[in-house]
Structures are given as structure tokens and as C-alpha cells.
Amino acid sequence: MSEVFSARTAGPAAEGAQDPDLARARDGDDAAFTRLVQPLRRELHAHCYRMLGSTHDADDALQDALLRAWRGLARFEGRSSLRSWLYTVATRTCLDTIETRGRRALPVDLGPSSDRAVVGDVPLVEVAWLGPYPDAGLGDGPAGPGARYEQREAVELAFVAALQHLPGNQRAALLLFEVLGFSAAEIATMMSTSTMSVNSALARARKVVAEKIPSVTQQQTLRRIDDARVREIVAGYSAALERGDADALVALLTEDVTWSMPPLGHWYHGLRAVTDFAVQIPLTRCGNWRHLPTSANGQPGVGCYLWNDGAGAHLGWSINVLTLRGERIAEITSFVGADHFASFGLPASLP
């Protein structure tokens, strides 16, 4: 993909084209290259997550993309901004990754919900699961004036899950246009295709995404709720689990609430089924819980810790992402796995 590095994208010349760090980096100064890309790392990482649906994949893709950029920097001609060029490299890297594996899924993508608690549910290791995104520090980002989605809206679970139903080229076109504000002509050059093809991909992608995401985003919902009230909901959810209080938990949920736990395949829909699951599994069989509040995918989240006799401590068990409707919880997505905690800056265990 040597065409990635020719940087013949449309648009204004880079403001940093005369940056002395750029000249030093072209001469092989890796410290200068690090200084150039550091301000863009966070937004590039978020872009890779949106493309791939996994923080771990995003880590690998960003590392690979920056290595490609470093190796090809001498051929960067400055006909576009450095940011545009790096997005080209990152997008191509993600498309290569998408070609090698299937889309990432949530349990709701695999089959119907369960009416009763499934005891002894086991992880489905053959499925590539969607993962949570630690959004601490994620800002608005320098999107163009045509961008439709806010940066935080564009990491919400419903949006990222919907993206996974798109082919790679449609996914890339939608993100570059609707989230990052690149023009169709710019995207065509970045993806080595025609403007007509980009517009066609955008039309198909918009249709699929519109059918799969709610009309009201989590950012809109959260803006309507006082921050203190959101903290109360999260604290109430955590306290109910720690006390084993089913009534307190149910009082926080909508009638059509869903609860899923990737990589476990079974999921639950509706207050009756979710209550049965909660009573049978986390409130009774699991044991003693502790929790820490966090933020994931632009939504309120909870780090859940389960007591382990062997360790003599509460060990990280899952990152629970809460989707709110009004002041109630409409979806609980419990991403099970201790490996999620480090990326959220959460401790591996609690006393």
C-alpha cells in the first residue's frame, strides 16, 4: 500500500508542513516524530476503536499505523495536513485488519433472548466480541464542519455495534465523513476510489446505521439528566448488587431492559427475565461484590469486583456499561474479563 504514503489527498497544505520537527522526523529523528503524532494519538485511537470494535485491536492497529507512517514519512509531500495523512494510514491499517477477521458481535446479534436465568453459561471463545472503550480524556476532537456525530456519540455502544454490521469500506466512509468531517472527495483519495463510490457507500451505511441506533443518543439523554442524578443511579445500581437487593435493582430498570454479558452467549430482555437472571446469578450465586464508578463508551459505567477466596480480595470481574432512558437503566452490558480493567485505569483488585 505504498499509495498510502504519497499523501496526495485534497485540502489545504498542512499548517505544520514547515514544522522543524517534521524535517527532523524525515531525517530519522524518532523523538521528533513522537512529538508530531502525540497530539493526535487519542483521536486516532478512538478512530481505530470505532473501525474495529475492540480496544485491544485499536491498540495494535494504532501501533502498526504509526510504524507505517514512520517508515513512509520521507514520502509525505505536505499536500494535505499531517492529520489527514495519518487518518489515511490508520484507516487503511484498520481495513487490513477487518479483512482478516469477521465483525465483532454482542450477544443480541447471535440469537433470541433467554426467558430464564441460564446457570453455568460458558464463554463463547469462537466469537469475536465487541469490547468496551475507556473514554476518559476523549474530547470533541477537531472534526470538520460537516461532521454529524459528536466524538462521544460516536463511541456509544449502539453506534459502534451498528458499525460492525457494515462492510469495511462503508464503515470507513461513514466515520471519515460523519464523525471526522472529511469531504467525499478527500475520502475518495484516502481510500483510492471515486467520489461516486464514496457517496454510494455513505448512502448504504447511513441506512443500516439509522435502522440500528436509537433516535435519542446517550449524550442527549445525559444532558437532560443532572450529573448528580447520574451518579445517584450508578451508586444505586452498585449498592443494590452489593446488598443483594433485588427490589432496589428493579426500581432502577425500564420494563424492556436488556442485560447481556459478552463473552457469555445468553442475554435477557424484559423486566421479568432480567429480574430472574439477577436474582439467580449475580445477587445470590456469585458471592460478594464491590464496585467502582467509571465511564465507558461515553456512558456511565461500573467496574465490578467479585470476592475470590484464593486471592483474599475482590478481583476485577467485568466492566458494566449502562445505557439510560430517562432516569432508568434500559440496557446493562457486562463486559466480562479482568483484562479490561487496565485500559480503564482501574485497579486489578480491591480489598
Automatic annotation (TrEMBL):
Residues of the RNA polymerase sigma factor 70 region 4 type domain: 158-207
Pfam families documented for this protein: Sigma70_r2, Sigma70_r4_2, SnoaL_2
Region feature Disordered, mapped onto this chain: 1-25
Matches recorded under InterPro entries: NTF2-like_dom_sf, RNA_pol_sigma-70-like, RNA_pol_sigma-70_dom, RNA_pol_sigma-G_actinobac, RNA_pol_sigma70_r2, RNA_pol_sigma70_r4_t2, RNA_pol_sigma_r2, RNA_pol_sigma_r3/r4-like
SnoaL-like domain residues: 235-331
Cross-referenced Gene3D superfamilies: 1.10.1740.10, 3.10.450.50, Winged helix-like DNA-binding domain superfamily/Winged helix DNA-binding domain (1.10.10.10)
Keywords carried by this UniProt record: Sigma factor, Transcription, Transcription regulation
RNA polymerase sigma-70 region domain mapped to chain residues: 36-103
Protein name in the entry: RNA polymerase sigma-70 factor (ECF subfamily)
Family statement drawn from the similarity comment of this UniProt entry: Belongs to the sigma-70 factor family. ECF subfamily.
Recorded superkingdom: Bacteria
Keyword Transcription regulation attributed: yes
Subunit organization: Interacts transiently with the RNA polymerase catalytic core formed by RpoA, RpoB, RpoC and RpoZ (2 alpha, 1 beta, 1 beta' and 1 omega subunit) to form the RNA polymerase holoenzyme that can initiate transcription.
